[in-house]
Amino acid sequence: MLILRLIAERILLSLLTLLLVSMFIFLMLEILPGDVASRILGRDATPESLAVLRAQLHLNEPALLRYGSWLGHLLTGDFGTSLVSNRPIADILGPRIFNTVLLSLYAFAIYLPLTVLPAMIQAIRRDRPIDHALSIVTLVLLSTPDFLLATILLITFVIAVPILPAMSLVDEGSSAMEYIQAMTLPAITLAIVMAVYAVRMLRDNLIEVLDADYVRMAELKGLSARRVLIRHALPNALVPTLNVTALNLAYLVGGVVVVERIFSFPGFGSLLIDALQLRDLPLIEATIMISAAVYIVANLLADIGAILVNPRLRKG
Amino acid sequence: MMVSAVAPTNTVYARLERYLSAWQRSPRSLRIGSVILAVHVILAALGPFIAPYGYAHMGAGIPLSGMSWQHPFGIDQLGRDIFSRVLYGGHIEILLSLSGTALGLIVGAIIGLLSGYIGGWIDNLLQRLLEALISIPFLVLALLAIAAAGPEAAGDPVLVIFVVALVYAPRIARMARSAAIDIATRDFVTVARLRGESAWSVMRRELLPNATSVLLVEFALRAGYAPVLIGSLGFLGFGMRPPTPEWGLMISENRALLIVSPITVLGPGFALASLVVGLNLFTEGVARILGRSVRLGAR
């Protein structure tokens, strides 16, 4: 019962956070700027177009009422209408989110071996040249901004060794092969950025576990080094790394903004940048709200996972 | 007489020797990091004076003519010398990063320490608000703040500083709060409270001095990532504006002609990455000396 209460508590807190995020977004975009309509129209503003936009966004109503109706529509899944294309935002979001989810899954598939293999090599060859070399590589990659890493990959695989396309343009009509080609470079970029963060952590965890008594015991039983590492050490070292993976998911939500932009990949992140550049207010609000929601849900799942695997709570 | 003549030289010599041995005993990451940072700071300070061309000087050479001794980082499409622009950009990168992080540290530390010390519903409320700010991915939060500031403020260095501070303050506050909760259980804090000191003065005189090592590592860690954040904003077109020689902006400007002249992108890219490598190594070294573990790379 204690578990259920803790989980229910977590869910309520997450909902509260989501509510506060929505207030903050509304405050930043609709209350702080003062005259929203002339902000959106900028130099193109005429008295008539301002009046039309004000009516369209209900800017003449009190702010609190506008927030209430915006939130009410959000709860029913209605994100409003895009100012630029005049289409319902939910329709625009659908294919973009689909693309980004595909890209993220691809990136995660590359991320896992890219984290585990170097960390295992480093842990086995501790304080040997290969360990030091990999430490330097991960530090340099950790310090390389994602947009620079993407650009370097672009130079390598598009110009020097031309095997992949520079522009990752896909649409509903693209074949699976075209999708894979388009997503490879963005996915590799995201995977590297996530992996270098986790490798350093996993290496330290593995070394700690390899020194533990039960690993010594397994070695003394005469098990092969590989079996000791894969069956006994790795699973225990992975548990603390799961937390890092949750943090990496949080990075991914922001990381796709930069990476999709660089490769012109039509996903959720490039939609956010487009919305900002075109000052499409309802679309900006919807995309930022969704990116925060993804982060909050990911954290909630990580918390619930931690509660479920905690043996001290399991009995109670 | 002889003693007094020799003694000062001796102390100076002894002091130098002490410094030298402290340097040799310090972690290798701190030594390498300090050297890289020193090179960056010197080049950033002298940059505008030693740069062979002005940062907006067009016609420094043949556009996109590639690497040469005269133009080590090449020439961009407007005929500007990239090496000179990188030299001019150093102080922009360092000053914006440090002042943004410092502002975030001040605001974050005050909120976090007070919130952790006072506790109760105020702490609960602040916790929820900070949690909400942290749940917006930091690049998205930065873009949101820039959208809120509007087109009039675009490219303003003050805006960039505020944005860095806004992104970091909640994260720093969270660390400061947990440090404050830990320190608040000690006797000297109880004594100060019983003396009738206000929360503000307890924070300033009891909590802050005992939280310095936490805050120092936190500052170094965040300052190490600030150039990446500023560069990302510049790269996406929401940070500094042309013709400012901000490195992220330069990478984005020259990216279109990557195929013709990759060095115009790699030059500023190397400058940015090496600055962050230096800051990260420095942070790791400082954390090791203070006996704290630090997870490099901001998430």
Give a written overview of the molecule.
Chain A is mainly alpha-helical and 316 residues long. Chain A contains 13 helices and no strands. The relative contact order of chain A is 0.13. By secondary structure, chain B is mostly helical. Chain B has helices at residues 2-25, 28-50, 82-118, 120-134, 138-149, 157-184, 187-194, 199-236, 247-255, 263-289. In chain B, helix 3 (82-118) runs parallel beside helix 10. The longest helix of chain B has 38 residues, at 199-236. The N and C termini of chain B lie far apart (63 Å). The interface between A and B is large, with 55 and 49 residues.
Task: Describe, in short, the structure shown.
The complex is a heterodimer of chains A (316) and B (299). Chain A is mostly helical and 316 residues long. Chain A has helices at 2-31, 36-41, 47-56, 63-75, 89-124, 129-142, 146-160, 176-210, 213-220, 225-262, 268-278, 281-309, 311-314.
